[in-house]
């Protein structure tokens, strides 16, 4: 089992930045991938980014490419999402997730709210 706890959400003006963190605990030594997703009211959950836990290979959705950066600190079992040039449409609950073997999340955090004001 892996437990995930997000933090770092909040209220920010358009054009601003936020850095989300996701602390992982439990069987983190066997993780293959970690992810960031978001869900806005009335919309489906949206994939944002993925990182290979061992080698750090990254992948981004077109909607955030160039504005968001995923990274991880293996020693601290922590995942990050640096979000720059935020827009009101980035307002959502942001979730981290983890996969232990395949490219498919097995575990989810509880989410952290990000609100971008215009």
What do these coordinates show?
Strands 2, 4, 5, 6, 9, 10 and 11 form a seven-stranded mixed sheet that branches. The protein has a four-stranded antiparallel sheet with strand order 1-3-8-7, with no helix packed on it. The model has no long low-confidence stretch (mean pLDDT 96). 0% of the residues lie in helices and 54% in strands. It is built from no helices and eleven strands. The chain has 118 residues and is mostly beta strands. It is globular.
Summarize the structure.
Helix content is 0%, strand content 54%.
Comma- or semicolon-separated keywords:
118 residues, globular, 0% helix, 11 strands, seven-stranded mixed β-sheet, mainly beta
Question: What topology emerges from the helices and strands here?
Answer:
Layout: E1 2-7, E2 10-13, E3 18-26, E4 33-39, E5 46-52, E6 58-60, E7 68-73, E8 78-83, E9 92-99, E10 107-108, E11 112-117
Parallel strand pairs: 2-11
Antiparallel strand pairs: 1-3, 3-8, 4-5, 4-9, 5-6, 7-8, 9-10, 9-11
| Total of helices | 0
Outline type: globular
List unreliable stretches of 5+ residues: none
Q: How many strand segments?
A: 11
Taking the sheet with the most strands, its summary is: 7 strands, mixed
Please give the alpha-carbon distance between the first and last residues: 40 Å
Q: What's the gyration radius in Å? A: 13 Å
Helix-residue proportion: under 10%
- Helix/strand/pairing category: mainly beta
- What's the overall average pLDDT, rounded? 96
Oligomeric state of this protein: single chain
Order of helices and strands: EEEEEEEEEEE
* Residues in β-strands, percent: over 45%
């Amino acid at each position: 089992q892996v437990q995930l706890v997000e933090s770092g959400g909040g209220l920010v003006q358009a054009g601003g930045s936020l850095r989300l963190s996701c602390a992982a605990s439990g069987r983190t030594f066997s993780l293959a991938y970690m992810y960031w997703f978001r869900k806005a009211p009335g919309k489906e959950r949206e994939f944002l980014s993925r990182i290979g836990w061992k080698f750090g290979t990254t992948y981004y959705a077109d909607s955030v490419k160039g504005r968001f950066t995923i990274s991880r600190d293996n020693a601290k079992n922590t995942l990050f999402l640096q979000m720059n040039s935020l827009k009101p449409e980035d307002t959502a609950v942001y979730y981290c997730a983890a996969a232990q073997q395949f490219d498919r999340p097995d575990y989810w955090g509880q989410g952290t709210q990000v609100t971008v004001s215009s």
